[in-house]
Write a structure and sequence with these properties.
Layout lengths: L4 E6 L6 H9 L4 E4 L31 H12 L4 E6 L3 H9 L4 H17 L4 E4 L10 E3 L8 E5 L13 E2 L2 E2 L13 H22 L2 E4 L8 E2 L2 E2 L7 H6 L7 E6 H6 L5 H10 L3 E5 L2 E5 L2 E5 L8 H11 L4 E3 L11 H21 L4 H5 L7
Parallel strand pairs: 1-2, 1-16, 2-3, 3-4, 4-9, 9-12, 12-13, 13-16
Antiparallel strand pairs: 5-6, 6-15, 7-8, 10-11, 14-15
Helix pairs in contact: 2-4, 3-4, 4-5, 8-9
Length: 370
Amino acid sequence: MAEIKLGLGLYRHMLTDEYFAFARQCGCTHLIVHLADYYSNQIVTATNDKVNYGEAKALEGIWEEDSMIALQEKAGQHGLTIYGIENFSPADWYDVLLDGPERARQMEHLKEIICNAGKAGIHSFGYNFSLAGVWGHQKERSCRGGAYGTCFDASRIKVDSPIPKGEIWNMTYAKSDGSAIAPVSSEELWDRLERFLREILPVAEEAGVEMALHPDDPPFEGLRQTPRLVYQPELYQKVIDISSSPSNKLEFCMGSIQEMTHGNIYDAIRQYGGQKRISYIHFRNVKGKVPKYNEVFVDDGDIDMLKALALLEQCGFDGVIVPDHTPEILCGAPWHAGMAFALGYMRSAMQMMERGLMMHILEEGEGRHE
């Protein structure tokens, strides 16, 4: 039986005893943490051509071995294990993405980060190899009962607005001179990813760390005059085929894959779960596809989440599932209430799985959404 683990994703400002206790109280055993500091000055709920996540800092002490070990020990005091880290700081690898003059130096630092993660017992490292990043979303009362949720509508933003120099992945790493970053072809961006993986995977494999690539969100072929890599489910196979290393894995974001226009989430689970290439999962639901969709409550979207979990069990997936993000419930603690609802649903479904009930969902047919 697959030993799927329940986890919670926490941003850097949430790496406190209070949030760790909340995760454990909701039944979590594992965490996926963000060490890149997106929200040091303010909580940004939407980005566009005028607003990004703020200033990215380089070479921060939080990436050092002692810091990661201390954070893992702090989680352990609450009965939790930090399973993964999600995303490098843009200031630490902008020239890896841009193929700029600082690339070699930055690659050495990234290798050091991966080694430090391994020494801290951190199993997975998620990354998003993208110039535009996760960009252009809105935050509205678009979910059931008027709950606040993230949505995307391409007609409401300037999809082709250029990325200014000094900005990458929605964050500013240097003062802009008013010009845009240099154009790049899809082939060049794929070459940059392959070069990155060829260099980082041997280090990750020795450290016992899986490199887990997040798909594009929003999954457009191009965004902000730059190409995207994994904007359709089948393109994940291209990533896998770059290297047979056991450290070459996927950060399987169910919401992003459902938003894509090709294929379906169930076949994607069979394909990549069957190859044992899924490192950890963003277990979230959506309604609609690009160019317009809403992120919704876990039980209220286009994905049959019970069927998806049954397929993961069938594939022998034994990693972590996290809600990633979820609608905020209108109350005194909107984030906590939204996460508690999602985690309660997920824990209940996992208990069904533990009692051998999930396979009946597959035996009854292809499900109501496929």
